[in-house]
DNA sequence: AGGTTGACCTGGACGC
DNA sequence: TGCGTCCAGGTCAACC
């Protein structure tokens, strides 16, 4: 479900609601897939930790934790302690009251000292929970698209033979861009998704660099895209889907030139573009 | 190494 | 109503 703007919206909402709260205990479900770290480790790092901040890195939600001063800190837990959540395609992080019925596909519940619960719900189980305890902390697989400079952006694609659409989805290059925002960015930059990344001109890369940042920033302002049932941590829908110019608009007229939007498959992902506006 | 494909899951929409 | 097919916001491991 979520790409950078949706994860940003969710992380901001969570930060507002649970920052400063204390995780008292953790329940983990029986499906092994969502747990990227061993269950014991997740439990031991989270239990008794205070949430210092919730933020986004790429498509990951990062909970920065600290030991509760009123409790004994375990000696093995020095350095930065973080809870990392990736929502996959269908994951949600909900803040609920305890008597709220447990939704189907709930895989983790953290009980908070405030009396509320943080619940991770994910029908498809592509999402992942992990904990990180290191000096440096979690930095994500690639570079942040919102702050990258043109020079570095250009360097990412140099010599690459893969289609620019596939390169935009490669999280080791830019992290956070997913299928919606790759298609929308390429439309706004006027670039065909199948073009070889390494063969884009300097001008095209400049336009793409600008488009990616503009599309993501606009989407954050509108709370992300709700294409089926996406809602943020407070159950609110996003509205950027109303600004989509190509994504899931197969056969509909281009909003600029009326040409029907085409759908092709690149890297196994549905890819939408205007054959006239994008070259 | 970089590039491509299929596997991993559930569920909703659609056609018959 | 049901059953089959296709599609969906994302990674990964396994191949070439």
What features would you highlight for this structure?
four-stranded antiparallel beta sheet; single chain; 24% helix; alpha+beta; 279 residues; DNA-binding
Description:
The chain has 2 domains: 4-134, N-terminal domain of MutM-like DNA repair proteins (Alpha-Beta Barrel); 150-273, Helicase, Ruva Protein, domain 3 (Orthogonal Bundle), CATH 1.10.8.50. The protein contains 6 helices and 10 strands. The protein has helices spanning 4-18, 39-46, 150-157, 164-169, 179-189, 202-221, and strands spanning 23-28, 49-57, 60-67, 80-86, 92-96, 106-112, 117-121, 128-134, 262-266, 269-273. The chain has a 4-stranded antiparallel sheet, covered by helices on one side. A 4-stranded antiparallel sheet has the order 2-3-4-8, covered by helices on one side. A hairpin with a 4-residue loop joins strand 6 (106-112) and strand 7. It is globular, with a radius of gyration of 20 Å. The chain binds a DNA duplex (16 and 16 nucleotides) through helix 5.
Q: What's the pLDDT, averaged over the residues?
A: 95
Overall tally of domains: 2
H and E order: HEHEEEEEEEHHHHEE
Specify the CATH architecture of the largest domain: Alpha-Beta Barrel
Low-confidence stretches: none
Largest sheet: 4 strands, antiparallel
Rough outline: globular
Radius of gyration equals 20 Å
Strand order of the largest sheet: 1-6-7-5
The portion of residues forming beta strands comes to: 15-25%
């Amino acid at each position: 479900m979520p790409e950078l703007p949706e994860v940003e919206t969710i992380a901001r909402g969570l930060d507002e609601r649970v920052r400063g709260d204390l995780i008292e205990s953790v329940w983990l479900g029986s499906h092994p897939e969502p747990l990227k770290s061993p269950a014991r480790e997740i439990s031991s790092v989270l239990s008794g930790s205070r949430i210092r901040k919730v933020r986004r890195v790429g498509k990951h939600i990062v909970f920065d934790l600290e030991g509760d001063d009123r409790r004994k800190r375990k000696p093995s837990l020095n350095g930065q302690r973080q809870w990392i959540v990736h929502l996959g395609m269908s994951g949600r992080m909900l803040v609920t009251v305890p008597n709220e019925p447990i939704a189907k596909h709930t895989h983790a519940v953290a009980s908070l000292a405030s009396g509320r619960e943080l619940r991770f719900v994910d029908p498809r189980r592509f999402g992942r929970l992990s904990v990180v305890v290191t000096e440096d902390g979690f930095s994500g697989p690639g570079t942040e698209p919102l702050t990258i400079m043109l020079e570095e952006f250009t360097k990412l694609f140099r010599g690459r033979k893969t289609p620019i659409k596939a390169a935009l989805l490669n999280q080791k290059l830019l992290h956070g861009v997913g299928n919606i925002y790759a298609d929308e960015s390429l439309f706004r930059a006027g670039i065909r998704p199948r073009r070889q990344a390494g063969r884009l001109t300097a001008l095209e890369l400049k336009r793409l660099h600008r488009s990616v940042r503009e599309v993501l920033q606009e989407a954050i302002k509108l709370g992300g895209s709700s294409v089926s049932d996406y809602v943020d941590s407070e159950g609110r829908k996003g509205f950027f889907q109303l600004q989509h110019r190509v994504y899931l608009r197969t056969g509909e007229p281009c909003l600029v030139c009326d040409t029907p939007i085409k759908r092709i498959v690149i890297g196994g992902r549905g890819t939408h573009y205007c054959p006239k506006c994008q070259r």
